Amino acid sequence: MPINLQVRWGRILLLINLCLFSFAVLLNMWALRGWNSFGNKELLQASNSHHRDPLGYYPLLDVATYGPMRFDAELRGKSIFKGPPSELLDNAWSKLVNQPMILVDNEALQSFDPTSKPSKGVDGHYYATVEVYHQLHCLDIIRKFIWRNHYQHVDTFMDPPQMVWEHVDHCIDLLRQVLMCNGDIGLIFYTDVGKEQPIARVSTTHMCRNFSQITEWVNGHDSELGVFAEV
Ligand SMILES: *[C@@H]1O[C@H](CO)[C@@H](O)[C@H](O)[C@H]1NC(C)=O
């Protein structure tokens, strides 16, 4: 009798255990299902946003990857792009800015600029410039304007003074919009130097597109029409 009773209790406990276990498994499956469908939804939205962006189709989207990059922004720091005009400086800027126009297909044209009368290239492709070079060109124009006595021979500065001013003004306003568009939310901290004003530490790390990859790609897709039509 006591043995029988033990066996019976054992079976009841096993049954209860099985019930609890099954319930736990079901609960887990339900939870995982919820988790997965949430994850999928996020992923779908993320990948959809690439394609349904108002500027939906970027040929360079997968070409220029993001990575951490430390800005070298010290007030007296040395850079090939800094300093008064010299041949070395001009070459550096010219190499940076003067990149060839490319040819892109109708899909890219339609998503970026569907209303304009496009300047057609070859094989149903259209001439285009990657924006960053136009923006860098604008920065270069401002730089040259500061040293305009030295750069009198530059085409832009041979225009009537009012036009030159308009061009520089256009460039400043374009770059304002570029900066606001990118809305850098990085933070700048300060070094305390006793009684004086703290010093801003401006050489911080940012997530940046790899610029070499952009330039390499653009040169690999050279339309052979030259650098962009100046704006
Ligand atoms: C950028 O891409 C080039 C290849 O074009 C690579 O050599 C370089 O290491 C990359 N730079 C960074 C910071 O990832």
Automatic annotation (TrEMBL):
Pfam families: UstYa (PF11807). Keywords: Membrane, Transmembrane, Transmembrane helix. The keyword RNA-binding does not apply. Pathway: Mycotoxin biosynthesis. One of its GO terms (biological process) is mycotoxin biosynthetic process. The keyword Transmembrane helix applies. The chain crosses the membrane at residues 12-32. Belongs to the ustYa family. This is Uu.00g133490.m01.CDS01.
